[in-house]
Amino acid sequence: MVNEFEIKKQICDIGKRIYNRGMVANNDGNISVKISDNEFLCTPTGVSKGFMTPEFICKVDRDGKVLQANAGFKPSSEIKMHMRVYKERPDVKSVVHAHPMYATAFAIAGIPLTQPIMPEAVIALGCVPIAKYGTPSTNEIPDAVSEYVQYFDAVLLENHGALTFSDSLLSAYNKMESVEFYAQLLYLSRQLGGPKELSDSQVQRLYEIRRQFGMTGKHPANLCPNNKEGKPSCHNCGGSCASKGGCASGASEELVKNITAKVIKELGL
Ligand SMILES: [Zn+2]
User: Fold this and answer.
1) pLDDT digits over 18-75, tens only?
2) Tens of pLDDT, residues 158-177
3) Ligand 1 centroid to residue 117 C-alpha, Å
């Protein structure tokens, strides 16, 4: 039995972390958690996510219709993009949306996060594509996000912000933190003359390590068709391979097994 009150408290705590790290301004951002197939807890519109208490949190059904909300609170109009992610990714239990400064700057400049510059970002995220611009509260954003939702756990929203999702609230939040840290490092290293990128083989090794860890979620390491041909993954296809229609099928298990065996041997594990 899910303890709803406990989850509401956790949502408030994550809201504080998002606000305190400057990942949102004003009343921006929203958080949701799936508690059953047709019940989702979500943050209300029009309040700072840094100062919420459990009674602020609303409950909606899978269509985003209000099941429960205290007087004065209603779900964010951006809940539509959360519901689309839940609908299309049954493994997802939580969705976080924010406007972190550096990640959003990249989303505004139209630059996806595709340069492999540090092991943690490659393992946790792979690369982060940009879903094309949509007017908030319409179906344009859910439609744009839908294009990437089967292939990634984090997407930038063009001229808007970032969206992350995972199998727990903490993990969805952590992905948002990772996206922002990656974007910040990429921005700063560009000011210092440009990053020295990890080599293709270094990226491949990190992808193999990710597979060995059995990490949950979707990641180009598991999906990019380039892998099937033994070529470097999405870091080399601009983070947009999903839209090129190539990523629909995962790399064959046989191939993954073979590469894993090779890497384990090479690493002397
Ligand atoms: Zn937003």
Assistant:
1) 999 999 999 999 999 999 999 999 999 999 999 999 999 999 999 999 999 999 999 9
2) 999 999 999 999 999 999 99
3) 27
Contact between 150 and 224 under an 8 Å Cβ cutoff? The reply is no
Span from the CA of 164 to the centroid of ligand 1 (angstroms): 12
Q: Which pair of structure tokens corresponds to residue 46?
A: 């029009």
Cα(44) to centroid(ligand 1), Å: 13
d(CA 246, CA 229) in angstroms, rounded, equals 12
Closest CA to 13 of 52, 46, 47: 52
DSSP for 141-202 reads HHHHHHTTTTT-SEEEETTTEEEEEESSHHHHHHHHHHHHHHHHHHHHHHHTT---PPPHHH
Rounded to the nearest angstrom, the distance between the alpha carbon of 161 and the centre of ligand 1 is 6
Sheet containing 161-166, strands listed edge to edge, beginning at the edge strand earlier in sequence: 66-68, 58-60, 39-42, 30-36, 94-98, 161-166, 154-157, 130-131
CB 112 within 8 A of CB 240: yes
What is the CATH class of 78-269?
alpha beta
* Total-model pTM: 0.84
Single out the catalytic residue among 4, 6, 39, 78: 78
Dihedral sign from CA coordinates of 240, 219, 25, 65 = positive
- Distance from Cα 28 to the centre of ligand 1, integer Å: 6
65-87 core/surface letters (b: 16 or more CB in 10 A; e: else): eeeebeeebebbebbbbbbbbbe
| Domain limits, the chain | 78-269
The single-letter DSSP state of residue 98 is: E
Is 78 one of the annotated active-site residues of the chain?
A: yes
